[in-house]
Amino acid sequence: MIQILFFARLRDQLGCDALEMEAVENDNVGKLCERLIAEHPDWREPLSQEGLLIAVNQSLVKSAHPVGEGDEVAFMPPVTGG
Predict the structure, then answer these.
(1) DSSP code of 47?
(2) pLDDT tens digits for 37-80?
(3) Cα(25)–Cα(67) distance, rounded to whole angstroms?
(4) CA neighbours within 13 Å on the CB side: how many for 18?
(5) HSE (CB half, 13 Å, CA atoms) of 57?
(6) Strands (DSSP E) found in the chain
(7) Integer Cα distance of 60 and 54 in angstroms
C-alpha cells in the first residue's frame, strides 16, 4: 500500500487528510495523481493547481518520481509568502 497525505488548504479542499492506495508496478507520482482523480473526479482542480508540492518519503519530488509499496506520498498546496 501507498500512504497518501494531504496538508493545509488542500486537505480542506478535498475533505480528506489521508488515504491508502494499492501500489501499482511502474507507478510514479503523476500516474498516482491520475488514479486519485479517476477515483475522485472533483479532486481534479485542487490536484492540478500550479505549484502543487509533492513529497515522497519526506523529500520533494517531481511527477516522474517513482512510487511503490510502503511509500508515503504527501501533497501540499503551493507556498506563498510576503
Answers:
(1) H
(2) 999 999 999 999 889 999 999 999 999 999 999 999 999 998 75
(3) 9
(4) 6
(5) 7
(6) 2-6, 18-21, 53-56, 59-60, 72-76
(7) 6
- pTM to 2 decimal places: 0.91
Cβ–Cβ under 8 Å, residues 1 and 22: yes
Distance CA 69, CA 16 (A): 21
The number of beta carbons lying within 10 Å of the beta carbon of residue 59 is 9
Strand order in the sheet with 53-56: 18-21, 2-6, 72-76, 53-56, 59-60
Report phi then psi at 36, rounded to 5.
-60, -45
Q: 49: which residues sit within 8 A by CB, 6+ positions away?
A: 77, 78
